[in-house]
């Protein structure tokens, strides 16, 4: 579990999540491989099991993330969106696809996380009855499962996925894998209650510093995500994914060399300098973290 200390610079990322992204997240359902091969029998509702990058320039993003994380790619769609699997070693960890820009836009990218859910149709009614809205109604993708996209009451985009092959088991996260999610919200307590209704999370509360609330979302006895305060001058709420790295400073050097820039540099108050946030050349915001998992968390 990442314990982020709130500061003005860190929360400014939400300005980017709300303003830099000048595209619509939508694509025609491609043919995707199963989430797990071999299949598992696990249903871990609330676990973030897939991530998608919507971008205006697929080739530039591929080059950038290959340089930063060593990711490789497998195109699987010849449609206009050019859906492409992102691979960390031999495993599929995410996808990316091209979208059309809004009028006048030159840059735009957004990472979107999909959490496991046992009933996307039920999620629709839960989201709507708790103040959210449906972005994309449930769609079935052969072999992959059924997904849906939503906007929470504060405007953050997220998705759910009912995998036809079960969910990935909870085990140690490899270097180059997605590791954590943080939601920046105006009212963390209310946001936590919303996601508790949607995914059945257990909620625990703490402070990122004196007088500043932090909410942790837990399912199946494992912390899945955090909810931290959004600054008053931020545009809207948003989810921020993190990738596990072996060396934060070395990764940031790769970021800048490849054309990205560092938004939040490592500092002692942010996980003892083991956390940073960067922006890719197309405006996508992503966090990185160096993390040594406690032995008790390993399976």
Q: How would you characterize this protein structure?
A:
The protein is α+β, with helices and mostly antiparallel strands. Helices cover 18% and strands 36% of the residues. It has six helices and 16 strands. The protein has helices spanning 8-11, 13-19, 58-69, 120-129, 188-199, 248-257, and strands at residues 48-55, 72-75, 84-88, 91-98, 109-116, 133-141, 145-151, 157-163, 178-185, 202-209, 212-219, 222-229, 238-244, 261-264, 275-279, 285-289. An eight-stranded mixed sheet has the order 2-3-4-1-5-8-7-6, covered by helices on one side. A hairpin with a 5-residue loop joins strand 15 and strand 16 (285-289). Helix 3 packs antiparallel against helix 6.
| Biggest β-sheet description | 8 strands, mixed
What is the beta-strand fraction? 35-45%
Radius of gyration over C-alpha positions, nearest whole angstrom: 18 Å
Q: Specify the helix fraction band.
A: 10-25%
Cα-to-Cα separation, first versus last residue: 16 Å
Characterize this entry briefly:
With 299 residues, the chain is an alpha+beta fold.
Which tags fit this structure?
299 residues, alpha+beta, 8-stranded mixed β-sheet, 18% helix, globular, disordered N terminus
Fold blueprint:
Layout: H1 8-11, H2 13-19, E1 48-55, H3 58-69, E2 72-75, E3 84-88, E4 91-98, E5 109-116, H4 120-129, E6 133-141, E7 145-151, E8 157-163, E9 178-185, H5 188-199, E10 202-209, E11 212-219, E12 222-229, E13 238-244, H6 248-257, E14 261-264, E15 275-279, E16 285-289
Parallel strand pairs: 1-4, 5-8, 9-12, 13-16
Antiparallel strand pairs: 1-5, 2-3, 3-4, 6-7, 7-8, 9-13, 10-11, 11-12, 14-15, 15-16
């Amino acid at each position: 579990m990442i314990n982020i200390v709130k500061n003005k610079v860190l929360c400014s990322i939400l300005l980017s999540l709300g303003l830099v992204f000048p595209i619509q997240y939508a694509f025609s359902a491609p043919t995707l491989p199963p989430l797990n091969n071999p299949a598992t029998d696990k249903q871990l509702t609330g676990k973030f099991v897939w991530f998608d990058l919507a971008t205006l320039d697929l080739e530039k993003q591929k080059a950038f993330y290959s340089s930063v994380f060593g990711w490789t790619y497998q195109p699987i769609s010849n449609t206009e969106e050019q859906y492409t699997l992102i691979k960390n070693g031999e495993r599929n960890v995410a996808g990316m696809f091209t979208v059309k820009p809004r009028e006048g836009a030159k840059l735009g990218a957004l990472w979107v996380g999909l959490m496991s859910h046992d009933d996307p149709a039920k999620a629709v009614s839960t989201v709507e009855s708790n103040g959210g809205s449906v972005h994309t109604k449930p769609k079935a993708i052969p072999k992959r499962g059924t997904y849906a996209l939503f906007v929470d009451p504060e405007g953050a985009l997220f998705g759910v996925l009912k995998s036809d092959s079960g969910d990935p088991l909870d085990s140690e996260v490899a270097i180059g894998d997605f590791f954590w999610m943080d939601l920046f919200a105006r009212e963390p307590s209310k946001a936590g209650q919303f996601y508790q209704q949607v995914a059945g999370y257990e909620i625990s509360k703490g402070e990122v510093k004196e007088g500043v609330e932090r909410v942790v979302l837990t399912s199946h006895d494992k912390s899945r995500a955090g909810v931290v305060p959004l600054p008053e001058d931020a545009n809207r709420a948003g989810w921020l994914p993190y990738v596990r790295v072996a060396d934060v400073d070395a990764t940031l050097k790769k970021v800048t060399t490849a054309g990205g820039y560092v938004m939040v540099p490592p500092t002692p108050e942010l996980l003892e300098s083991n956390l940073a946030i960067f922006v890719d050349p197309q405006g996508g915001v992503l966090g990185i973290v160096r993390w040594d998992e406690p032995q008790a968390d390993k399976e």
